[in-house]
Amino acid sequence: MTALTSWLLSSTANAGEEGTFWMPPQASTFAADVDNAFYFIYWLDVIFFLALMGGMIYLAIRYRYKSDEDRTIDIKGNHTIELVWSVFPSFLLVAMFALGFNAYMKQSVPPADAMEVRVTAQKWSWSFDYPSLGITGEKVLVVPQGQPVRLTMTSKDVIHSFFVPDFRIKKDVVPGRYSVIWFQVDEIFGARPNEGRGPNDVGEMVSGLGEGEHQVFCTEYCGTDHSRMYSRVQVMPQEQFDTWAAAKVSFDPTALTAVEHGEYLFKKKACAGCHSIDGSKMVGPSFQGLYGRSENLSDGSTVIVDDSYISESILVPGQKIVAGYANQMPTFQGQLDTEQITAIIEYIKSLK
Ligand code: CUA
């Protein structure tokens, strides 16, 4: 109880890396503004709650029923009191508006020199492209420290919502529209091994947040795996970011063997979000032992899983659905060329 009390009392806006009882750490430059607005309203609520409930209890005791002769005096009204309880709270409301509006405006207008990152949401993964650097399809949003970053976000299927609690940013990501949000992180926070979840650099789901990492959630219900639609932001010093970007640009996946290239695409295109490679059933069928197997389809027919069927399932996923699974997969038409599809087929073949 004392721990809880001290935690509650430590709920000041200057929380920085620690966070407070109500709020996660303040990682972005405008997190403090958001928290100031929140805690202004929060403490007003606490004060008014105590004053009103305390007053009510006091008056209930002080003027409780004693006898029939003890009658209430007839009060017609009091202009002074009525003016005070109208005018005074209106100043408080204007102060709330000013704090909130100030923080909202800062978030709404990205600086002109912000680095552009394109965010694509789909069931159930996030992917990040850096048009100015020629980097595409990243699973982790890697950003340089101390630089404004502008996110231009859209969705391939349904409405998702991009949420980074540590940054106090949250915005809907809507198909057919581009929503914009920005942030800047000046400080690199320590690792939080017991918090967070998301794909690593090669698309495998891992737990814990490393140094400079922040959790990304999808915060708009978008179907079966909505609650597992994680990602993370990785903040690093500018020089380290430049090294990272240079390595990404010079990496040539076609120099790998077909099986390795297929495995790389399997992770990079987030296939792993719905298809296991160990036989366990997820949103889609497992890839283990898939090649050459005879599958029962939802229309009652059967199909042998060969190159043509895998290729068709990647490009026109709704065509032949395996019995027991829903038609959930997005098409990869226009995103994977023949060479890449061949690499994925070779990878699936290797999963015996
Ligand atoms: Cu995407 Cu919920």
Describe what you observe in this structure.
With 352 residues, the chain is α+β, with helices and mostly antiparallel strands. The protein has three domains: 2-108, Helix Hairpins; 115-250, Immunoglobulin-like (Sandwich); 253-350, Cytochrome c-like domain (Cytochrome Bc1 Complex, Chain D, domain 2, Orthogonal Bundle). It has helices at residues 2-9, 31-62, 79-108, 238-250, 258-268, 307-315, 338-350, and strands at 115-122, 125-130, 135-138, 141-144, 148-155, 160-164, 169-173, 179-184, 192-199, 205-209, 213-218, 231-236, 294-296, 302-304. The strands form four sheets. The protein has a five-stranded mixed beta sheet with strand order 3-2-1-5-8. Strand 9 (192-199) and strand 10 form a beta hairpin. Mean pLDDT is 87; it is low at 9-14. The structure holds dinuclear copper ion (CUA). Dinuclear copper ion binds next to loops. Dinuclear copper ion (CUA) is lined by residues 121, 124, 160, 218, 220-222, 226, 229.
